[in-house]
Amino acid sequence: MLDAIAAANSGHVVAYGEDEYTHRAERVFKDHFGSNAEVFFVLTGTGANVLSLASFTRSFNSVICAETAHIQVDECGAPEKFTQCKLLTVCTPDGKLTVDGIKKYLHGFGVEHHAQPRVISISQPTEMGTVYTPAEISSLADLAHQNNMILHMDGARLANAAVSLDIPFKSFTTDAGVDVLSFGGTKNGMLFGESVVFLRPGMSAEFKFLRKQGMQLASKMRYISAQFEAYLSKDVWRTNAMHANKMAQLLYEKTSSVPGIKITQKVQANAVFAIIPANLVEALQEKYFFYVWDEATCEVRWMTSFDTTPADIDGFSSFLASKMAGG
Amino acid sequence: MLDAIAAANSGHVVAYGEDEYTHRAERVFKDHFGSNAEVFFVLTGTGANVLSLASFTRSFNSVICAETAHIQVDECGAPEKFTQCKLLTVCTPDGKLTVDGIKKYLHGFGVEHHAQPRVISISQPTEMGTVYTPAEISSLADLAHQNNMILHMDGARLANAAVSLDIPFKSFTTDAGVDVLSFGGTKNGMLFGESVVFLRPGMSAEFKFLRKQGMQLASKMRYISAQFEAYLSKDVWRTNAMHANKMAQLLYEKTSSVPGIKITQKVQANAVFAIIPANLVEALQEKYFFYVWDEATCEVRWMTSFDTTPADIDGFSSFLASKMAGG
Amino acid sequence: MLDAIAAANSGHVVAYGEDEYTHRAERVFKDHFGSNAEVFFVLTGTGANVLSLASFTRSFNSVICAETAHIQVDECGAPEKFTQCKLLTVCTPDGKLTVDGIKKYLHGFGVEHHAQPRVISISQPTEMGTVYTPAEISSLADLAHQNNMILHMDGARLANAAVSLDIPFKSFTTDAGVDVLSFGGTKNGMLFGESVVFLRPGMSAEFKFLRKQGMQLASKMRYISAQFEAYLSKDVWRTNAMHANKMAQLLYEKTSSVPGIKITQKVQANAVFAIIPANLVEALQEKYFFYVWDEATCEVRWMTSFDTTPADIDGFSSFLASKMAGG
Amino acid sequence: MLDAIAAANSGHVVAYGEDEYTHRAERVFKDHFGSNAEVFFVLTGTGANVLSLASFTRSFNSVICAETAHIQVDECGAPEKFTQCKLLTVCTPDGKLTVDGIKKYLHGFGVEHHAQPRVISISQPTEMGTVYTPAEISSLADLAHQNNMILHMDGARLANAAVSLDIPFKSFTTDAGVDVLSFGGTKNGMLFGESVVFLRPGMSAEFKFLRKQGMQLASKMRYISAQFEAYLSKDVWRTNAMHANKMAQLLYEKTSSVPGIKITQKVQANAVFAIIPANLVEALQEKYFFYVWDEATCEVRWMTSFDTTPADIDGFSSFLASKMAGG
After folding, report:
1. Of B206, B234, B262, which one is at a domain's C-terminal end?
2. CB contacts < 8 Å between C and D, how many?
3. Which of B3, C196, D249, D261 has the greatest number of C-beta atoms within 10 Å?
């Protein structure tokens, strides 16, 4: 990634995205997502999500998402701030939305007392580390389109899902009926930079204004574009995500066998969820960084990454086991 | 009410609330809610709720309410539009919030990734026709204040609650720890006009600007003030609400005995909730106006009002019984 | 007006505008503004203006108006709050926009760094008491439409302009190219109630949602509709406005001859602007209500109304003259 | 700058700014702006400006700025979008605000019909390439503070002003009464990254929430912090800005002597404004990138930069001279 930035750091180029680095990166996105795909580079994952939603909504619309969705719990209300829309949340044990879970919100169309549903937003992988199948995604896309709605996918870690499913990006995005995608790179090795990808024609006319107004237009955009080009054209995404997923499997194996540890979700990407004794959290967090996901049950989330090593996993698992044993 | 308006419709008075009608009405509110109460007149119930919330929030705050709350389901997203805050909803069988139900949201204070909880909003009576006791309200107020939060009460039908509890307004608002109140008159006999009442000192400094910006400042405010003065100083509120509540009890008695009709909520104010056969809805709605509350279960809401008559109740119940009997 | 309200205050009618009073009022608006006119009733003049602008804008648009426009100086920033758009102001000596004055803002279309101009908003009569001719309005409409923009007219006092021009409403609105109109009644005799009128087909699809979200949907709308029907179908508007304009002419005659008083604007509707000695303001305001328009020059605005009497004018002019003479 | 990023690209560090690079950069800012200075890193210049304004405003406030201000003309309405405040603009020949120019807006305090003035925003250097003296800044700060307002400085190119004045940053910011500063690095050599600096205690409590909600929180913040540390601790800022300013002087000398070219502003930083024949714009822009500042007069803006060379200046000036001579 540094090499890509360094290569982009020479000569004078036009600012705000009208440069050759950006044009090349745009072509690489079409290779992965189909010829109708139009990509726009932004600065943060929150920016990618919020501007995706804003592109399809008026303030009287609502957005349906899982109660665990990043847009609901981890973005400080930025979606409401920028779009002014209502977020409607669905309880879901594994982070996945289902047709049945959504249906209770699909009424009141045309009635002015109710915010009008306009977007279904899913995360792939979900915030619980699970991965939608293409068929699951298609069923949500059909439901959306039958109701004049849009399917948005938060793909901050999309590479981890692609590796998990072992199919091309296009098979579970464009081909499965997704309309707009937040595609991230920062969580899988890039220094900075995220993107919004419109997967069908005619959807992006307003985007450049929303991006500028959303304070997401980088003046020296080539430093993002160059990273994305390197990330997507050279299999960096695959290598990094494959490694992270493998480390999560290793972590799952090592920790699920520790007496007293309960793994709570399927491990399909690069996250392991576990319930641990509350009195161990502090000791573990002194040595390792992780979030407590649910204070009430003491469910924690352990993430692996492109630069996690087997030794890291061993060290953590041993430390955990010794603590569980009263060490 | 028309007499009150007509009386206010003479002579020239200063616009925008600096008139004697408004000053008199302000004093009547102090009589009912305590000497610290400061009332501001607005134009709609949604306006009263939204401006109440806006008075205490910044866009990065969140508001906790029941999933059935009017601010959540019936105001077309106006709270999000104006305050830009996130609404966090609690599942509740009877429309009432409880300390336990709220606690899952009271974390992440000071953490910038999470919208910061700032208001607990309850409706009295609830949208399910149930009524909070003063003790229930106090426990929510204590929870709010312990967390540097505010307790808001949506009192669009507050008179029905007061009559149901048979205690003064002040006992279950100011004295129970409520900070700010939406107090309505339109649903209990007034032609138009709602109000926001701040129940503690030092809370209202910004309100006049928010009201103007929220398009809720009536130029000829005396027509609202005069109605409120008549409504509150002459027991109109009590007479009307007592009648409506009595009609709801009558409706409950007559319909609960109809075979096949299941009453789903306690009838404590002027609403009756029932599950009826879905195939009867259309026939009933041709003669009577009511909402289907839950499409999935065919739960309906029947409201009574200050001008409902016993004959109305008889007519409706007989019609329902005959339809249930296959008529 | 009270009679109209009283007539509407009988029997049960459907709430939120689905009543016969509202339907009748809608037809009367078509009589005045053409068969394509669609009227929506709202609660305040600010509401009418803001919702008119919101119907045509996204947050990255801008609205061009006179620096004296009500939307710019008298609505506490409600247009920016609700539409989030930028207001671009034009200096104008008489309150009127001109093609030349606007042109400096008509660039940067399609460039994301600049808010995109979308609406030209004029007031008729202007805030300076002057009245646009139909030809002046047409030239602004043409400019707007050539640039894919919309012409909005703030007609809070439109009746005064119609009487001044002595032509039907339609001649200087629909026929002159105006797209959307804020039409007011409160300043010309109604107790409350304003309206938004779309003058061309296909513009109003989103309005009902914006109105609800803008807290401008009256539950008992018939009390507004009934007033508008009475106001527009029975020449109340003309009688009242004609009287107010005549009183303004009388005021102009009486005060322009007072030595030391300088009338600063043409008197074409029901406002007289004058520069008076700063040290007289307080004494005059003790007896008469008026605004100081420009603190620097001590320009004041005197408004006449449907209930101003010749005796009022005489009294004011005599008092002014005596004060000027050192009385 | 690349070296700084590369140095930060090693090992695992805590995300979102709780890292040693960020803490070191914070100390460097205190060295330059005083011990009360608190810096927050953001992603774009628009982000820095908008979040500065949002920190001090409610939606009913207004912000006073030059009609040429970046926040007014070049940010696609992002300030209105995020703060919902009104921007009040002052005509100014040289881009500088003056006490006299602002005073017309300092009325209506406490009157709910008017947006309440809360911030004076100036750019240093101005968008016209001129530089405020410390005394000029102090007079604006005094005016602001007398009216319970805040002085904001847009310092996207602050280094160019410091070099021009030849005094420390602190002398014309903190010591001159500025309250909050947008301090930029991208336009003077950094790859990306901007900052907001609060110059007095007690102003920053809400900032972290606004930054997250404004989509300006970088997860890998150390890549910004490391650049700022290198930029400010090693005189990179001074060397780069001194060079850019010197090149602007050279450009001024070379072009002001070309017959037919009129330089329109004092050249005090790194911009030269000139009126040129409209028919030369296209030919010049084919070889050189610059903006037409005013279409009506064909005033153009030529910027110099840290990497402009004397040969660039020579080439441009010669090309211009030859074109002017009919070449």
Report:
1. B234
2. 61
3. C196
Residues D148 and D283 in one domain: no
Other chains touching C, judged by 3 or more CB pairs under 8 Å = A, B, D
Q: Specify whether C73 is located in the same domain as C120.
A: yes
Say whether residue A86 is in contact with chain B using an 8 A CB cutoff: yes
Domain final position from B234, B256, B279: B234
- Write the CB contacts of D89 (distance below 8 Å, at least 6 apart in sequence): C89, D64, D65, D66, D67, D69, D72
Residues of D in contact with A9 (CB under 8 A): 2, 191
Q: CA of B306: which chain C residue's CA is closest? A: C12
Q: Which residues of C touch B6 (CB under 8 A)?
A: 2
Q: Residue C8 is which amino acid?
A: A
Domains contained in chain B, number: 2
B-chain residues near A301 (CB < 8 A): none
**Angle of CA points D71, D74, D78, to nearest 5°:** 60
CB contacts, 8 Å: B46 with chain C: 212, 215, 217
Q: Which region among A228-232, B2-6, D237-241, D250-254 has the lowest average model confidence (pLDDT)? A: B2-6
What pLDDT band is residue D169 in, cutting at 50, 70 and 90? Answer: very high
Q: What is the ipTM of this complex?
A: 0.94
pLDDT higher than threshold 90 for residue B8: no
**Domain boundaries, position D272:** 238-324
Are D72 and D203 part of one and the same domain? yes
Interface touch D46/A186, C-beta < 8 Å: no
User: What is the CATH number for B279?
Assistant: 3.90.1150.10
pLDDT one-digit tens code per residue, C92-150: 999 999 999 999 999 999 999 999 999 999 999 999 999 999 999 999 999 999 999 99
Q: Does C208 touch chain B (CB under 8 A)?
A: no
Name the residue facing D60 among B16, B60, B210 (closest C-beta): B210
The HSE-up count of residue A3 (CA atoms within 13 Å, CB side) is 5
Contact B158, B169 (CB under 8 A): yes
- Determine whether the interchain pair C84/D89 forms a contact, defined as Cβ–Cβ distance below 8 Å: no
Pair A251, A124 in one domain: no
Given this model, what pLDDT does residue B188 score? 84
For B273-321, how does the pLDDT look when each residue is reduced to its tens digit (9 = 90+)?
A: 999 999 999 999 999 999 999 988 999 999 999 999 999 999 999 999 9
Same domain, D198 and D84: yes
Which chains does chain D touch, 3 or more C-beta pairs < 8 A? A, B, C
**DSSP state, D129?**
S
Closest CA of chain C from B215, distance in Å: 5
Q: CA B236 → CA A283, D157, D288, distances in Å? A: 65, 66, 78
CA angle A36, A164, A287 (to 5 degrees): 120
pTM of the model: 0.96
With an 8 Å Cβ cutoff, are B60 and D213 in contact? Answer: yes
Q: Indicate whether D112 and D76 sit together in one domain.
A: yes
Query: How many contacts, defined by CB atoms under 8 Å, are there between A and D?
Result: 99
C29 and C154 in a single domain? The answer is yes
The per-residue pLDDT for B13 is 67
Domain check: are D93 and D109 in the same one? yes
In the numeric block, which tokens belong to residue B64? 């906790």
Indicate if the pLDDT at residue D308 is higher than 80.
yes
Q: What is the pLDDT of residue C150?
A: 98
DSSP helix, strand, coil percent of chain A (3-state; round to 5): 45, 15, 40
* Shortest CA distance from A112: residue in chain C: C209
Average pLDDT value for residue range A70-87: 98
* Residue B309 Cα, gap to closest chain C Cα (Å): 12
Query: Does residue B259 have a cis bond before it (omega within 30 degrees)?
Result: no
